[in-house]
Fold this protein.
Amino acid sequence: MNRRTFLTFVGAAAAPRNAFETGAQRPILCLFSKHLEWIRDYSRLAETVASIGFEGVDLTVRENGHVDPKRVEEDLPKACEAIRKAGLQVPMITTRIEDARKPETHAILKTSSALGIRYYRRGGESWGKGADPLRRIAELHPKIRDLVELNKQYGMFAGIHNHSGYGLGAAIWDLYELVKPFDARYIGSNYDIGHATAEGGYGAWRSGFHLLASARRIGMVAVKDFVWRKREDGWRPSFCPLGEGMVDMKTFLGYLKQIAFAGPVSLHFEYSSGSGAPEEKRKAQLADMRRDLNRLRAMASDAGLL
């Protein structure tokens, strides 16, 4: 058995039997590293994330991210070594992977699996030019099938992110239909409660959550908050500090408790409260991160999730 075959075998054998069996006893609170991409040194990135109080990193492995896909075999091990040296975990990565046929897809999944990373956020899909959702979903199934086979080979779970707006996955039922034919151990949802609330805030987000959860499709979770603001082009979601917007975190975290969720929770910061010079903005950003993390940890503890 050569090294490649061995790593492939180990990765597949280590795959969680379903989206909730991560080996962790509780969720892992992670920083989405997109928000610290101004820190390019991996050791400094790790030290900064640890100083804020996070337990892990949702690491960007995409163009202009912390790891360039073209250098994933060289740089992802370096990033993981620095992050783990700081006492943090790397339970998931965020990618733009869509197609199993692209060479970088194999490189990313192979390297991640060898490093013990089991979860990755997959790139999104558009509705295309047609107006028939079910037809579009059927058109995408062969591409998803090929990716699932690759995930199976490397023991990886792909979570599709639900973005608000006119994109496939926003309504949640469409994301469910996209992954429904395939093994839940290898494809499902990177469930974003902020975007889900923007699309179904009065209550539809709940049915969407339960649809995915009952099918054991929620592998990872993204957390952010927002308010509605009127602009020249109409009402739009405007992201804000956690706990100050429309997201019903108490109910959401209670649902996670009910399903014994123990996967990565990626905290996002799509807003800015700082002003002035770049250094002042960055100080304000780090303070925002610490405050929101403390709020999330307190709310999750109250829900019995931590």
In short: The CA atoms of residues 300 and 306 lie 6 Å apart. Residues 1-20 have pLDDT under 50 and may be disordered.
